[in-house]
Amino acid sequence: MSMAKGARSPQGAVDLNLDLRSPPEGAKELPNKDSGFLDGSPSESPGLETTKGITAFQTLVHLVKGNIGTGVLGLPLAMKNAGILMGPLSLLAMGLISCHCMHILIRCARRFCHRCIVSFFLIVTQMGFCCVYIVFLADNLKQVVEAINSTTNNCHYNETVILTHTMDSRLYMLTFLPFLVLIVLIRNLRVLTIFSLLANITMLISLIIIVQYIVQEIPDPRQLPLVANWKTYSLFFGTAIFSFESIGVVLPLENKMKDARRFPVILSLGMSIITALYISVGTLGYLRFGDDVKASITLNLPNCWLYQSVKILYVIGILCTYALQFYVPAEIIIPFATSHMSKRWALPLDLFIRLAMVSLTCVLAILIPRLDLVLSLVGSLSGSALALIIPPLLEITTYYSEGLSPVTIVKDTLISILGFVGFVMGTYQALDELIQSGSPLTFSNSTVFIQ
Predict the structure, then answer these.
(1) Residue 55 class from Cβ within 10 Å (0-12 exposed, 13-18 middle, 19+ buried)?
(2) Using 50, 70 and 90 to split pLDDT, how confident is the model at 382?
(3) Cα separation of 66 and 121, whole Å?
């Protein structure tokens, strides 16, 4: 990987230019200095010493954490919408295609003509994830607090839970805002590894608790349909695309590695782990609860402290994940803004933009009703485009003049068509639900305790 060290700034920072595609020595550098995220110029440099890069293990930790979020909790319901046979096979295919498209995006993202397109969808997708995380944090903490008087130590005795009203979910969102501001002030990806590792641990413990409850009593699976109704398959597609969330973090991770030549192996390993985990949780959850499976698997858990801890651990994990998802749009916007300012104002502007961006995600979470549907719409628009539509088209437009094989062209065309079909179906369904919904404010990522 080529690395060019520049002169030190008055604050003592070192400018690093990291090549996303790791070209041979002497390869021609692209002359764009505004997009630090795609060029490799880190935005964490104002007033700080830039680190040399992250290790392969740190990259793997970030990659796994970039995927494991709120989407995994909805995979059992996604399996119901696809069928007990079609669901796991489709999720396996989705994982393979997503991993392949990530490799394509890495190879093509450095081409100047495509940067604006990729950057736009990265910003929209990652900021959307940050908004839904705030809703998830507030709503789950609210329900844990309100059910605290009815929570027992007996996980085998179910009863109707009487919730004790506390305060509106929007006030819980505001209480999280100071913590989120502090987290996003961390501008070093190596330091964020600590938060990613903590999030991985808390979510892994949560999933272990969920899985051990699921496998205690699995009914006869022969009653479940192998293939579900085709009308519900679009629901599966949307959930699966949302679950593979790391499409937005692969660029900064490859960019920050000490040895970016190892990133393809790390990417394949990480996606293999994630896909196997998703298939296991989704399939076991559907086998255990069948047609009674809820939008979030935590809805099916008993109301006792052991399973309430799942929600608490997930709150901690999502809180830590916010910083990693926020890192991506910050790496795109901040270098562009600070490049037009003097060194004296670079650090204050950096801090102001971070504060404004995190406040924006909180305001959107507070003001937009039915945020779950709005974020589903954003995910269908930007997630499908970034994950499935854009990478294959980038490969064709980038390498067609170099003699791209017909097989590759057909493959890329089919993947783009698949992404476009999901884009249309997911967008239509989200818009239809937004228009027809007249119910009170609810959140699909939350957990209601009625046993």
Answers:
(1) middle
(2) low
(3) 16
Which pLDDT band, with edges at 50, 70 and 90, does 44 fall under? very low
Structure tokens at 71: 């989407």
What is the C-alpha separation between 320 and 249, in angstroms, rounded?
Answer: 15
By the 8 A CB rule, do 235 and 78 touch? yes
- Is the CA virtual torsion 203, 331, 426, 397 positive or negative? negative
| Residue 174 structure tokens | 């505001």
Q: Which two tokens stand for residue 192?
A: 């964020």
Question: What number of other Cβ atoms are within 10 A of residue 53's Cβ?
Answer: 20
Q: Are 311 and 143 in contact (CB under 8 A)?
A: yes
| Alpha carbon distance 392, 396 (integer Å) | 6
CB-based contact 148:344 (threshold 8 Å): no
Q: Taking a C-beta distance cutoff of 8 angstroms, is the pair 244, 379 a contact?
A: no
Task: Please list the residues that pair with 5 across neighbouring strands.
Answer: 16
Phi, psi of 4 (to 5 degrees): -115, 125
Q: What angle do CA 406, 409, 413 make, to 5 degrees?
A: 140
Give the DSSP H or E segment for 3: strand 3-5
18, β-bridge pairs: 3
CA distance 57 to 202: 18
Q: How far is Cα 225 from Cα 232, in angstroms, rounded to an integer?
A: 13
> How far lies 238's CA from each of 285, 303, 384, in Å?
18, 29, 8
Please state the rounded mean pLDDT for residues 150-178.
72
Environment class of residue 156 by beta-carbon count within 10 Å: exposed (0-12), middle (13-18) or buried (19+)?
exposed
**Strand ranges inside 138-239, DSSP E:** none
Cα-flanking dihedrals φ and ψ of residue 449, to 5°?
-100, 85
Backbone angles phi and psi of 163, in degrees to 5 = -80, 140
**How far is the C-alpha of 316 from the C-alpha of 313, rounded, in Å?**
5
What is the mean predicted confidence (pLDDT) over 414-440? 75
- CA 375, CA 387: separation in Å to the nearest integer? 16
Report which residue type is found at 83: G
